[in-house]
Amino acid sequence: MSKIRKNIKCLINQWIELYNRDIKKLKSSNLPLFDATKIVNEIILNMEKVSGNNGKIIKEKVSDLIHKNGGFKILKQISDVLSGKKESFLPLNFTPTMSTCMKYAPITSVNIERSFSTYKMILTEKRTNMTPQNM
């Protein structure tokens, strides 16, 4: 029994390590949209490979998550067009110029949060009160 537990623990650790690596990749700056959507798709495919009752639960949660996040579907379409994938098309109301601007669009909020932190340091009370009288 302890050998089975060791094997299960090793398997779980490998999965966690893979997902942590992929999440770190998604958090990196200047990740092209194509690479980011590819990472997410690989994670989804790996999660769907889990068998048994846990696999069923995971598949339902992943399906629900993708359904709730319609924006990912749009980003995936744009990514397919940018990568030259055959039979791909732009979402409605997207021009080719708009799609090329999305080449490095972040699919996580990490880069957005970073920019908020940066701008927060620029717009401090001390910096906004720099008037000739305060100087």
Task: Describe the 3D structure.
The protein is mainly α and 135 residues long. Helices cover 70% and strands 0% of the residues. The protein is built from seven helices and no strands. Helix 1 packs antiparallel against helix 2. The longest helix is centred in the N-terminal third of the chain and has 26 residues, at 2-27. The termini are far apart.
Unreliable runs: none
Radius of gyration: 21 Å
Q: What is the overall pLDDT average?
A: 77
> How far is it from the N-terminal to the C-terminal residue, by CA?
75 Å
Structural class: mainly alpha
Count of distinct strands: 0
What string gives the helices and strands in order? HHHHHHH
- Provide a count of the helices: 7
Helix content: 55-70%
Q: Tell me the strand percentage band.
A: under 5%
Tertiary shape: flat
Largest sheet: none
In short:
By secondary structure, the protein is mainly α. The chain has helices at residues 2-27, 33-48, 52-68, 70-82, 96-100, 110-122, 125-128. 5% of the residues are buried.
Q: What attributes does this structure have?
A:
135 residues; mainly alpha; 70% helix
Write the layout of secondary structure elements.
Blueprint: H1 2-27, H2 33-48, H3 52-68, H4 70-82, H5 96-100, H6 110-122, H7 125-128
Helix pairs in contact: 1-2
